[in-house]
Amino acid sequence: MRSERRTTIVEVLLLLGVSLGASALWSILRIIERTTRNVALNQQSSQLNTSVTPDRPWLDLAYQLVGIGLGVVPALLALYLLRVRPGTAAPAPVEPSLGLARRAPLRDGADRRAPVRDGADRRAPARALLHGLGLAALIGLPGLLLYVVGRQLGITTEVQAANLSGAWWTVPVLVLSAVQNAVLEEVVVVGYLLTRLRQIGLHPWVAIAISAVLRGTYHLYQGFGPFLGNAVMGVVFGWYFTRTKRVLPLIVAHTVLDVVAFVGYTLAKGHLSWL
């Protein structure tokens, strides 16, 4: 038991070390650098989705697609690790797919390979979409308000959510980037991390707190407002996952939020000065 717990802790640290844990460390260094400048945070900017070679759109597209593809690898690795090491120390049966596969919810002693025959499970994609849209509305509107307030208080940078050259592929790439962010963050920081933290014996709310703080920390480079907003989002999403053991609605919600931010910024930045 102790050996398995140690192995799980090492696995978690290694996976985070090559993904969002590393992003959190870089983000901490970035906010230290920002706050030690002689320029207020709200006078600084954070650029997302930037062009690499704007003078050569075809090469820029290749850069963007490779970045998006590599960005989902840690999430795939997390799902693989849950499948090959489902663990025996969990307080409840573990679904290695985190609810992404169309399978009936696991019960003690149930066959993980059993096909879905429950009519209710056939409605799972529609239910995930509705739950995801609801979560997006719950998080998105207060999050936008917190961003505006943070800018006024001087604790949030100007977040330039999309800075791609105006090529024909700009909007599709922004949508793909939103999906990549959602899959990476929700699979790794919610589904995988909460599962593993519960397996090593942490209380659910302690696990949720760790997940939420991590989510806030890798957004800290944008300022303290985004740190707080993303941490609150992490608490809500973590609570939802502990209740449902389903990560797909969280991916839907996160994708919607990022699509609105990325594409909306691209379309509106010339008309709304406060953006």
UniProtKB/TrEMBL annotation:
Keywords: Hydrolase, Membrane, Protease, Transmembrane, Transmembrane helix. It holds the Pfam family Rce1-like. It comes from the Bacteria. Residues 168-259 form the CAAX prenyl protease 2/Lysostaphin resistance protein A-like domain. The chain crosses the membrane at residues 12-32, 61-82, 128-149, 224-241, 248-268. The keyword Cell cycle does not apply. One of its GO terms (molecular function) is peptidase activity. One of its GO terms (biological process) is proteolysis. This is CAAX amino protease. It comes from Arsenicicoccus piscis.
